[in-house]
Design goal:
Layout lengths: L1 H7 L10 H16 L4 E6 L5 E6 L3 H26 L7 E4 L3 H23 L3 E6 L1 H11 L5 E6 L5 E7 L4 H28 L1
């Protein structure tokens, strides 16, 4: 409980505690209390946000289960920054020995495979439930192909992605059939009326 009070107990004044100071203090406390043999470097990457590289003897634990521990540390740190500096708008990018790049490449390959399946089968396919940052990568990647559309599906932090062809002809065919039937009925009615007149 004392750890949470330390991070969330009061809001910083702004200039006295800038974002990098808050990130530094938060990570120091988290890693000390975790018992993990890990160190970190913090860099200001300009428009890209603040980059945090975590490394050490236990870095492989950060990557297990698709990087859940790395994501959790990043998420917790972001919440502390938002609490202490509510006016700050910055992106935090946590990584460990190139893990993010490897993960992003795997997501792009998965997106391409699912896109091919959707186009080949001409129906929707679904990607496994992913956190927002991973969903964003897939959405942005596939937005460059006008043949498919994507949509997040589900509730909560983790959601599936629906990938489906951008065009669908079934509805048009049904509407077209309806018009043809109506025209036929009008045509038959007209023929009967003419016969009656004659």
């Amino acid at each position: 409980m004392n750890l949470f009070k330390k991070f969330f107990g009061s809001k910083a004044s702004g200039e006295a505690n800038d974002i990098m100071d808050v990130v530094d203090t938060t990570l120091e406390g988290v890693l000390q209390n975790s018992g993990l043999e890990l160190s970190y470097d913090i860099d200001d990457d300009g428009d890209e946000g603040i980059g945090v590289e975590i490394f050490g003897e236990d870095e492989e634990l950060l990557k297990e289960k698709e990087g859940q521990l790395l994501d959790a540390i990043q998420f917790f740190t972001k919440r502390v920054v938002q609490h202490q500096l509510p006016e700050a708008r910055v992106r935090l990018n946590f990584d460990s020995n190139g893990f993010r790049e490897e993960t992003n490449q795997a997501l792009l390959e998965l997106a391409d495979r699912l896109k091919s399946m959707a186009l080949e089968k001409k129906k929707s396919v679904y990607c496994k439930a992913l956190p927002p940052k991973d969903r964003r990568i897939i959405h942005q990647h596939l937005s460059g192909d006008e043949r498919v559309k994507t949509r997040s599906v589900g509730d909560g932090h983790y959601k599936k992605i629906k990938i489906f062809p951008a065009t669908g002809g079934n509805n048009n065919n049904r509407r077209g059939g309806g018009r043809r039937n109506n025209n036929n009925r009008r045509g038959n009615g007209g023929a009967s009326a003419q016969s009656g007149n004659r």
